[in-house]
Design goal:
Protein name: RNA polymerase subunit sigma-70
GO molecular function, one term: sigma factor activity
Radius of gyration: 17 Å
Organism: Rhizorhabdus dicambivorans
Helix content: over 70%
Keywords: DNA-binding, Sigma factor, Transcription, Transcription regulation
Number of domains: 2
CATH topology of the largest domain: Rna Polymerase Sigma Factor, Chain: A
CATH class of the largest domain: Mainly Alpha
Distance between the termini: 22 Å
Strand content: under 5%
Pfam family, one: Sigma70_r2
């Protein structure tokens, strides 16, 4: 289950007040969020994504005193993640197609997008776990049907059916029919 904005914020504030357990829980909860963020934006090897996740976690830890508890946590987190990604591109001197630049560096509406991601996570948490995981893997994290099936230990047709049923259930909930 993915943590909500409120839960992440609570763990961050707890960590700022000296609760080591809350801080450790926060860092653990950030791993899948950051992996998904970088997987969608960095088309390098998986170890590069993991390196970026680790660099970001270190930055969250070392710069935690700069977090303003009155502001949304996800906005602060993903600003750090964006800067780490830019540093990564600079180190590699990677060319980035100009049409992709807006997606990578977009700042306008970033807070709204972060809150929307949390809303999607909350909606997915209302589904059976298999359906939610299939949707997260294929629609949010960008895995292929085969990759999602392999990581879940189920068949490809099972992933397809789970995605279809999950999206149908979410559509009904959003329309107020369920």
């Amino acid at each position: 289950m993915r943590a909500s904005e409120d839960q992440l914020r609570a763990w961050m504030i707890g960590g700022l007040k000296g609760d080591a357990g809350a801080h450790a829980t926060l860092l653990s909860a950030l791993v899948p969020l950051l992996q998904a963020f970088y997987r969608r934006r960095v088309r390098d090897a998986a170890e590069d994504v993991e390196d970026l996740v680790q660099e970001t976690l270190i930055a969250v830890h070392t710069r935690r005193a700069t977090y303003d508890p009155e502001r949304p946590f996800a906005v602060w987190l993903f600003a750090i993640a964006r800067y780490k990604m830019i540093d990564h591109f600079r180190r590699r001197r990677q060319a980035c197609p100009i049409e992709d630049l807006a997606d990578i560096l977009a700042c306008e509406g970033f807070e709204d997008a972060s809150i929307a991601r949390m809303d999607v996570a909350r909606l997915l948490d209302t589904l059976p776990r298999k359906q939610a995981d299939a949707i997260r893997d294929t629609r949010l994290d960008g895995l292929s049907i085969a990759e999602a099936a392999s990581s879940a230990g189920i068949g490809e047709s099972d992933v397809k059916v789970s995605v279809h049923r999950g999206l149908k259930a979410l559509n009904a909930r959003v329309r107020g029919q369920a």
